[in-house]
């Protein structure tokens, strides 16, 4: 996956007149290596800095903006005051859904397209073709729920 994303990244950068710098590659590598973790820009920065101690936070921010504009990553907001990022999987028809625990802040992905029947109904009734959607469920994860039961 990483090689394919990296090749796509190189190609898109070239088309837009950008160069593939070591810093840009390092940011993309960290996001790819931590796929599914929904890392914040600060977490990405800390991970990149392990191998490239001279990299600046502003460089990471600019790279994240560029990756998002090129469609290689998604910027996600879980209403916790921090933007998070995840890899754009080319084989996904839609972005996946997220389960967000309001107790511990954990985020779990739901891979199934929970809204396919609704999308079909929208098309049948309105002729509207849904290309994508974003669904986030807020609640209490299994672990926190079990901890709450054991405390009572």
Describe the structure in brief:
With 152 residues, the protein is α+β, with helices and mostly antiparallel strands.
CATH topology of the largest domain: Arc Repressor Mutant, subunit A
Order of helices and strands: HHEHHEEEEHEH
Beta-strand level of the residues, as a percent range?
15-25%
Q: Going across the major beta sheet, what is the strand order?
A: 1-3-2
The percent of residues in helical segments reads 40-55%
The named CATH superfamily of the largest domain: Winged helix-like DNA-binding domain superfamily/Winged helix DNA-binding domain
- Figure out the total of helices: 6
Low-confidence stretches: none
In the CATH hierarchy, what is the architecture of the largest domain at level 2? Answer: Orthogonal Bundle
Distance between the amino and carboxyl termini: 46 Å
Indicate how many domains the architecture comprises. Answer: 2
Shape: flat
Broad structural category: alpha+beta
List keywords for this structure.
Arc Repressor Mutant, subunit A; three-stranded mixed β-sheet; alpha+beta; 2 domains; flat; 47% helix; 152 residues; Dna Ligase, domain 1; single chain; three-stranded antiparallel β-sheet
Task: Tell me what you see in this structure.
The protein has 152 residues and is an alpha+beta fold. It folds into two domains: 1-91, Arc Repressor Mutant, subunit A (Orthogonal Bundle), CATH 1.10.10; 92-152, Ferric-uptake regulator, C-terminal dimerisarion domain (Dna Ligase, domain 1, 2-Layer Sandwich). It has six helices and six strands, in the order ααβααββββαβα. The strands form two sheets. The protein has a three-stranded antiparallel β-sheet with strand order 1-3-2. A three-stranded mixed β-sheet has the order 5-4-6, with no helix packed on it. The longest helix is centred in the N-terminal third of the chain and has 15 residues, at 2-16. The N and C termini lie far apart (46 Å).
């Amino acid at each position: 996956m990483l090689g394919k994303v990296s090749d796509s990244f190189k190609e898109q950068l070239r088309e837009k007149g950008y160069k593939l710098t070591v810093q840009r590659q390092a940011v993309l590598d960290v996001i790819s290596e931590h796929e599914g973790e929904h890392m914040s820009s600060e977490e990405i920065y800390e991970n990149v800095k392990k191998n490239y101690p001279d990299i600046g936070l502003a460089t990471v921010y600019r790279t994240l903006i560029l990756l998002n504009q090129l469609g290689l990553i998604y910027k996600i907001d879980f209403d916790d005051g921090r933007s998070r990022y995840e890899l754009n999987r080319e084989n996904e028809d839609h972005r996946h859904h997220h389960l967000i625990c309001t107790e511990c802040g954990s985020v779990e992905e739901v891979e199934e397209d929970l809204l396919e029947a609704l999308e079909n109904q929208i098309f049948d009734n309105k002729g509207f073709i849904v290309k994508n959607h974003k669904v986030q469920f807020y609640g209490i994860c299994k672990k926190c729920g079990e901890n709450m039961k054991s405390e009572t």
